[in-house]
Amino acid sequence: MSNKRLYHIVKTFLHYGLDELVPKKMLPWYAKLGRFSLFWLQNKHKQKPVAQRFRLAIESLGPVFIKFGQMLSTRRDLLPPDFADELALLQDQVTPFDGELAKQLIIDAMGIEMFTQHFINFDSKPLASASIAQVHTATLIRNPVEENNSHKEQTKVVIKVLRPDIYKTILADVKVMSRIASIVARWLPDGKRLRPVEVVAEYKKTILDELDLNREGANAIQLKRNFEQGREYDKVLYVPEIYSEYSNKNVLVMERIYGIGVGEVNTLNDLGVDMKLLAERGVEVFFTQVFRDSFFHADMHPGNVFVDATNPADPTWIAIDCGIVGTLNREDKRYLAENFVAFFNRDYRKVAQLHVDSGWVPASTSVDEFEFAIRAVCEPIFNKPLSEISFGQVLVNLFNTARRFNMEVQPQLVLLQKTLLYIEGLGRQLYPQLDLWQTAKPFLENWVKEQMGVKAVFSKIKDNIPFWNEKLPEIPDLIYDYLKAGKDSQQQQMQLMEKIAQQQQASNQRLMFGVLAAGLIISSTLLLNEGNILFSSISGIAAVLCFVYSINK
Asked: How would you describe this protein's topology in the membrane (predicted)?
């Protein structure tokens, strides 16, 4: 990172007065001197709240910082509410780069021959532009012929292409973020709790994953397969088709969709869309991905979600941009579902016990104290009507309380929390009366029954039949080998015990003759002092014989 970029970042922070976040009494003399030396960089936004200034500074620093701010807005366990609310307003609206340059980048990535044979009507004007990539429309020809393409299969597509030199830009800005994070961790009063170094490291991993469009394509294919025709919820979510044969790390070709942005509430109302059903299906989408598929779209903000309103009475959600996905293992799913159901029933004791059993908090945690802390946080919330309770906010409060009891950060739960907040926000934007609790409760209760009831036992047996069918012929041999090994092991143990007994007997005899030799030496000495040379000599010889025997035993 050049010093010029670092200076620009420092200048931006000082112009927005963000140095006020660090109390002056905590700064060492050299830090105060450094701030004084930049006397011409004064706060130009004194009339604005500090949280708003922080968001404006992030916006002015460009796409990489905007993306970071968006990620940071989901970490309500780390930020004060006013900061989290401000950062949630960040929009990924970035000036597009030259369309002809985008076209050349696409050609360089897939090759001139493939591009000219398979793509026509490429629009140099981008359809959308974001911090990492921008999107152009084109027409894909699946079966081209050299003479005439007009009668062949044509499909409207969008081509997503990474911004030029975005990898270098991201690495450079992340490097500066890491340096700033180290300063924040050291000097900010709440620096250690905020864990800025770890947060930046988490962001670096997430954003570098987004730079591989092959990964995004694979995620979209998996998500589409989970909701394809014939599945129980096939009308709930649609994912555009990915054309992998034309895609690579820098370019992604996908089906063009013509949905309505989920944020265009007036348009949806004008079309007569069933908003209650649409909102409830949004909840269904979330819980289906999490608890049925263990694979969920973790970036479902309004820019990535559209609505197919072709049939207003039967609307379908459309999801794009699958660069960030989350997964849960079986244990995480079970504990999470049981936690939700326990919350529905206000069984805080079970919530506390589940957190200890899952290993999310240390085993030494007092369940009684943990239960009391959860009750103190959640009981006032439940005094409101259910339709006014934020499901996502309850989850945030739960995680905040658990962290006071040394709960380890669970990355998959952070993504889950972020996605739930998005879904709940979208659902209530579409249908303000949405009662997410009542919508989700039957789904979760049925899921828990399916996972833990009699039906689940038979289902697991059924799933394991191919494995046991393969292993069944081997069982007699395995039993024979086990019994034979046990018999051989028993014989070896008996031989070992006999050898130990012999060694113990020999050791006892050595000890006995050693003690006898010492006694004879003492007797020989006493007899010699009394002048009885004959008996003294006999006793001495006997002592030597006993000593020699004890050594050789």
From this structure: Multi-pass membrane protein
Query: Does the structure show a pLDDT above 70 at 92?
Result: no
Within 8 A by CB and 6+ apart from 79, the residues are 72, 73, 87, 194
Those residues whose C-beta lies under 8 Å from the C-beta of residue 108, and which sit 6 or more positions away, are none
Helix H or strand E encompassing 141: strand 133-141
Mapping DSSP to helix (H, G, I), strand (E, B) and coil, where does residue 94 land? Answer: coil
Residues labelled catalytic:
299
495 and 436 both lie in a single domain? no
- Check whether residue 284 and residue 376 sit in a common domain: yes
| 433 carries a ligand binding annotation | no
Asked if residue 141 belongs to a domain, the reply is no
The rounded distance, in Å, linking the Cα atoms of 160 and 165 is: 15
Are the beta carbons of 379 and 299 closer than 8 angstroms?
no
- Both 16 and 83 in one domain: the answer is yes
Task: Judge whether 472 lies within some domain.
Answer: no
The separation between CA 239 and the C-alpha centre of its own chain, rounded to angstroms, equals 22
Residue 132 annotated in ligand binding? yes
Q: Is 133 a known ligand-binding residue? A: yes
Compute how many other C-beta atoms are within 10 angstroms of the C-beta atom of residue 70. 21
Higher pLDDT, residue 548 or 460: 548
Percentage, residues of the chain above pLDDT 70? 73
Q: Give the alpha-carbon dihedral of 431, 436, 442, 447, to 10 degrees.
A: 120
Strands 316-319 and 237-238: parallel
The partner residues of 238 in beta bridges, in order of sequence, read 318
544 is known to lie in a ligand binding site: no
- The Cα 171–Cα 154 span in angstroms is 39
**Is residue 333 annotated as involved in ligand binding?**
no
* Residue 127, marked binder: yes
| Judgement on whether residues 175 and 305 belong to the same structural domain of the protein | no
- Asked if residue 500 and residue 446 are part of one domain, the reply reads no
Confidence category of residue 233, pLDDT binned at 50, 70, 90? very low
Does 363 lie in the same domain as 271?
yes
Helices (H), strands (E): how many in the chain? Answer: 22, 11
Give yes or no: residues 495 and 444 share one domain.
Answer: no
Domain that holds residue 27: 3-93+168-210
Residue 461, annotated ligand binder?
no
Q: Is residue 197 part of a domain?
A: yes
CA–centroid distance for 284 within its chain: 21
- Domain-ending residue, one of 432, 452, 472: 452
pLDDT at position 35 over 60: no
Q: Which of 426, 452, 478 is the last residue of a domain?
A: 452
Reported as a single tens digit per residue, the pLDDT across 471-524 is 677 677 777 766 777 666 777 777 778 778 777 777 777 777 777 777 777 777
Q: Is residue 225 part of a domain?
A: no
C-alpha to C-alpha distance for 111 and 493, rounded to whole angstroms = 71
Q: How many domains does the chain have?
A: 3
